[in-house]
Q: What sequence folds into this?
């Protein structure tokens, strides 16, 4: 099963829409906050796709939680924007929060910098920003492939994306 992870679109939906089009075969799309309005608007065009989202510190009118936990098959996923977990400083609190709930995957945004890590059974991913990366690179998003007990996380760079 393929999951697409997006974050920090900040009112700029074009790259997010391009990423969703690239990954049309994915079953689940997750947005980690700061751009929920445009994410929901885009996902309404794909009624057969499942999507999850959490609110970010800039999603002022959103009613969603800023951290949530859910299951894909037998894999528990923690997904959060990250601002309440101090992710701009280190990932210790995030890892602790994921482990306390027995999550095998911890997803976070907020920093606008992509990050992949595997730490003692826990997959940690920040997909970076789909619209305004802070590491001077191109827009990025994440992919999680779950096949039985096998979990593979990766970052997709949209180097050929030149939209606005």
A:
């Amino acid at each position: 099963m393929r999951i697409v992870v997006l974050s920090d679109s900040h009112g700029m939906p074009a790259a997010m829409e391009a990423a969703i089009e690239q990954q049309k075969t994915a079953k689940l799309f997750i947005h980690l906050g700061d751009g929920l309005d445009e994410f929901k608007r885009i996902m309404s065009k794909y009624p057969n796709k499942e999507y999850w989202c959490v609110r970010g510190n800039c999603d002022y009118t959103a009613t969603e939680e800023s951290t949530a936990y859910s299951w894909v098959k037998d894999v528990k996923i923690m997904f959060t924007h990250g601002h309440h977990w101090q992710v701009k400083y280190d990932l210790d609190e995030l890892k602790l929060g994921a482990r306390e709930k027995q999550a095998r995957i911890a997803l976070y945004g907020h920093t606008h910098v992509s990050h992949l890590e595997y730490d003692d059974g826990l997959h940690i991913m920040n997909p970076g920003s789909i619209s305004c990366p802070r590491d001077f690179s191109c827009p990025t998003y994440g992919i999680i492939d779950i096949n039985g007990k096998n979990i593979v996380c990766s970052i997709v760079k949209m180097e050929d994306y030149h939209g606005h």
User: Anything to note?
Assistant: The CA atoms of residues 71 and 77 lie 6 Å apart. The chain has one domain: 2-157.
